[in-house]
Amino acid sequence: MKLLLLLGYLLMVAAQLLLDWLNVRHRRLAAGQLPPLFAQRIDEERLRRSEEYALAKERIGLIETLLGVILTLVFIFGGLLPWYDRLIAGVSDHFILHGLLFFGVLALVQSLVGIPFSLYRNFVLEARFGFNRMGIGLWLTDLVKSLLIGTLLFVLLAGGALWLVQAAPHSWWLWVWGFWAGLSVFLLLLSPYLIEPLFFTFKPLDKPELEERVRSLLERAGVKAGKILQVDASKRSGHSNAYFTGIGKVKRVVLFDTLLEQLNDEELLAVLAHELGHWRCGHLRQRLIKGQIVALASCFVAFYLLNTHMLPGWFGMDELSFVGQVLLLGWLAGLLGFFWTPVSSWWSRRHERQADQFAIDLVGSGMPLATGLVTLARENLSSLFPHPLYAAFHYSHPPMIERVEWLQQRTPTNAGLSVGDGPAEG
């Protein structure tokens, strides 16, 4: 069984490397074949830099992937895990404390390994292409905040789950799921007020006319949002975004200040209409329900497998603690998740298409969203020529050129760019 698991893991790595190679090769062959709407806004120099940016990200991603493969092979298949499990047990045999130390030390090591990659991405790669706006002081501050918040959430989630395992040995799978589900909803309510402001400064939109048009758009979409805010994302990065966050009475619209600089009002409203489409089409609710169903099933499967005590034998190990077996379960979930990725990506692209259609209906034309996406592709140096197989496997959104052409095909020839007249009829 150990050999089969090892071969499955190596197959996953080989599949990922093959997809990456196909993607790089395809981009080089297809580069320069821009449709008219893109050619009007993206010149050859910008297209060349987009390819350089994509390659630079892929190179550092490849190094990170290979390092992860080596560490996994050594830790799980090289016999290091049982030694580590015994080492932590020697520090404390208390069930909850042992579990917190076991995963806490691993999380700390993972964070330390990730620091050089984060430094390189921000201060070499992103800086080289003009995106990084952070100094080392802000980067360190963000790192400390992230570690503190992560540690607090880890102790709460892992400690609470381990306590429930100990308190309800015959039904902990249901209690752990309920605990995590309740806490995740609570964090959705809490995050906009306690966590996000630790990293960004939010303020009311400083364009009164645009705010009025945004509220009109929200009203016509049938969405009530308490606040329309802009965030100072530009002090960290030149990348742009907008999102609709919160549930219940804490819903709010958040616009990056970089987005406000890059798009005109018509394009910005169309992008926002797309985000509203996710809410009105029930995508956020569906994802939440799907996530909880998967979590419930995972907790039950984990309960069953941990009770059978089969996991150590599958990996050629004599014995492991409860938390050591949980680690193996997490690794198996990651392996299965990789091969589930194309299904998840397809489902996400389907939602994106529905949100695009909602935006068309709401603003009366697909052109504002189309031109806005082209502008964002230009400003963010987006990769425009992914291999179809790579895109089908990994892309959560339709490829940019395909998406823009789809929007253009659904735009009436006499449609203007105004969003003030409401959804198109018929």
From TrEMBL:
In Swiss-Prot or TrEMBL terms, this protein is called: M48 family metallopeptidase
Tell me which residues this entry annotates as catalytic. Answer: E275, D356
CDD domains reported in the protein's UniProt record: M48A_Zmpste24p_like
Query: Coiled-coil annotation: which residues?
Result: none
Amino-acid positions noted as binding Zn(2+) in the UniProt annotation, renumbered to this chain: H274, H278, E352
What family name appears in the similarity comment? Belongs to the peptidase M48 family.
Which cofactor does this sequence's record say it needs? Zn(2+)
Q: Does the keyword Methyltransferase apply?
A: no
Q: Where are the transmembrane segments?
A: 60-83, 95-117, 147-166, 172-195, 288-306, 326-347
Q: Where does the source fall among the domains of life?
A: Bacteria
Q: What InterPro entries does this protein's entry cite?
A: CAXX_Prtase_1, Peptidase_M48, Peptidase_M48_N
- The keyword Glycosyltransferase appears for this protein: no
- Residues forming the Peptidase M48 domain are 205-410
Q: Which organism is it from?
A: Pelovirga terrestris
Keyword set, alphabetical order: Hydrolase, Membrane, Metal-binding, Metalloprotease, Protease, Transmembrane, Transmembrane helix, Zinc
Q: Which residue range or ranges hold the CAAX prenyl protease 1 N-terminal domain?
A: 28-199
Q: Which Gene3D superfamilies match?
A: Metalloproteases ('zincins'), catalytic domain
Instruction: Recall the GO molecular function terms of this protein's record.
Output: metal ion binding; metalloendopeptidase activity
User: What's the record's note on cofactor binding?
Assistant: Binds 1 zinc ion per subunit.
List GO BP terms, alphabetically: CAAX-box protein processing
